[in-house]
Amino acid sequence: MVFEINVAETWIIRNYREKVNGSMMSDMEMVLKYGTGSTVPLRLDPPELIGAYGRPRQAALDDPAAAVAAALVDPLDFPPLKMAIAPGDRIALALADGLPCAAQLVAGVVASLLEAGAKPEEITVLQACQESNTGWPDPRCQLPASVRRRVSLVTHDPTQRDELGYLAASAAGEPIYVNRVLWDADVVLPIGCLRLESHLDYGGAFGGLFPTFSDQATQQRFRAAGNYRSAKRRQLRLREADEAGWWLGVSLAIQVVPGPGDSILHVLAGNSGAIYQRGRRLCREAWYYRSPRRASLVVAGIEGAAACQTWENVGRALAAAMNLVEDEGAIAICSDLAAAPGTALLKITQAESRDLAYRQIRRERSPDAPTAYQLLRALEKNKVYLLSRLADEVVENLGIAPVENVRQIRRLADCHSTCAVIWNAQYVMTGGEGDGASDLQQAAGSATGIGREDQ
After folding, report:
1. Which one, of 156, 241, 170, lies nearest residue 204 by Cα?
2. Any idea what DSSP says for residue 308?
3. Quick one: CA torsion of 53, 59, 60, 63, rounded to 10 degrees?
4. pLDDT digits (tens, 9 = 90+) for 375-407
5. How far apart are CA 206 and CA 213, in angstroms?
6. Bridge-based pairing state of the strands 401-403 and 383-387
7. 307-342: pLDDT as tens digits
8. Does 91 fall in a domain?
9. Which residue range forms the structural domain that includes residue 218?
């Protein structure tokens, strides 16, 4: 184990006696959701509660299929869908990794394509590598059986070079390879999920398309830790993704603003630049929060089904919490995570020191590299707790204190003077003055030609 768990602090959360005197009971009970239907009731005095974040004012869409069909009737800065396709066009629907309500969206898009004159056998649904889609159903599952049999489904494998096509060289001289489904298509229609610019794995307007459907070497280059440490390198990666979208001739795109858990708040379709501009604003309205000050404890929940319970989302939750927690404070992540740590996270367990772990992570380009980097940053100044389905030993070897049940989270809150709570922490970004996110946000904006006028 790289970092010692503070035994005394762990003992406190397991043995601290709950307050039973009525005059000592908290005045406010707050219920944090995580997983599918699991909750953590927290009793907090209003002066102790710094803020509660991650509950958008907008209601989630009742019918994403109908919403995407409506968006395609009148796209933003683009003609109706029926004018964008011609008879015989081969159409590729490229689904971003982690896309919520994917089956409903595919059903709505395919129905719109058929109404516009396309035939089912001309449509191919392309999804990210199977490892990334564990827990997601077949995205065609809501199509009528007669249509589903004729719509193709392809799972991208970045290691198979014969399934890739060369597009061009980027401005930086890097080769741009994409899945042959995209390379051969007459119409590429990406369906992406918007995220805030300050997320470590933010990919810009075409982040759901590239490097998601590129070759393994490109994906590994995008995961390099230097991209997260340097705003300049991050900007180069964003520009490369934009170039890939341009070379593919993507003119019509679909983007969704995610909602709590597995839901969607908004569906946008149209010119990629136009939907990026509007979607970026809607995403910030839903998921960006400013806090008046930091708290000694931040409790963050990851809501959603099995496909949302990933180490990638743990990394995003840590990023949200780090902008709220005091130095030497504590972060508690509540999840139903059951996936074993990946290659980069295992480097932490094998390293003899944090500095050595950092050096090894910088060279690591596995899918969990962003999370490993984020975890190391969090452990530099904070205590990290994790409620999950993993064995205690697995969690402890990462330098994280395992939490067995929600009662321990409540006892941990009793031990801290101030607390902040984050729902849906995988989507949230928080900050205040000097929150340290502005450099990354400016890099993202400059890479896409978009300023910070809405800050």
Report:
1. 241
2. G
3. 180
4. 999 999 999 999 999 999 999 999 999 999 999
5. 11
6. parallel
7. 899 999 999 999 999 999 999 999 999 999 999 999
8. yes
9. 64-284
